[in-house]
Amino acid sequence: MPLPERRPSGLPPRPPSDGLGWAVVPLITLGVGSPVSFLYAAVRRRSAGLAVAAAVYAGALVAAYEALLAQGDEPHTLGLLLLLGTWIVSAMHAVGARPRLYPPADPSDQRNRRVVEAARYRRTLREEARRIALEDRGLAHELRIGRPDLGPRAYDDGGLIDVNHAPPQALGLLPGVTPEIVDRIVRCRAEQGGFISAEELALQADLPPRIVPDIAEYGLFLT
């Protein structure tokens, strides 16, 4: 029976921030949020220049509110001008600084992150499938854990192979296992009825040491 195509699955990684939320804070807060916004960026990027900008915007806002609270039309007008200037300048500053602080991610980097996340997720699938196999062998058999040769399965075990029960074509899916090694595994399995670990398999079937960690990762040893 032909084996089903093995397709990777995984949870999509969270995309990196594009900095849009950070850049619009000074704009939507009428400049009031600019000191906090630029202070956050200064800490995040460890930038003295951004820290100075945060201090300047904070000082301008303090001066503006002091002028607004002062008596007379002239201080009041000065306060409004300071507020308007802080708003416009900080908003333009944030928009201009955004590409440097949040550079667009390289497509290859995003692809690599997705591949890494998918591989990590499939590792969690294997760990969960092993836990089921240890706690409930009957359920493991019903879910066909480690048996890609049994056709489409609703349960994704992350690519496990049941070394003690899978046919030769499924054993050949184990990383680094050649047809000659498959023959040795099948012969040893028939002689002693199965194995309890990758280490025992390696000893009995005289496997190359380099492939033992991969067999331990993907091999399942159900009795």
From TrEMBL:
Residue intervals passing through the bilayer: 20-43, 50-70, 76-95
Keyword entries, A-Z: Membrane, Transmembrane, Transmembrane helix
One Pfam family per UniProt: HHH_3
Keyword Transmembrane helix included in the entry's annotation: yes
InterPro entries in the cross-refs: RuvA_2-like
Protein name per the record: Helix-hairpin-helix domain-containing protein
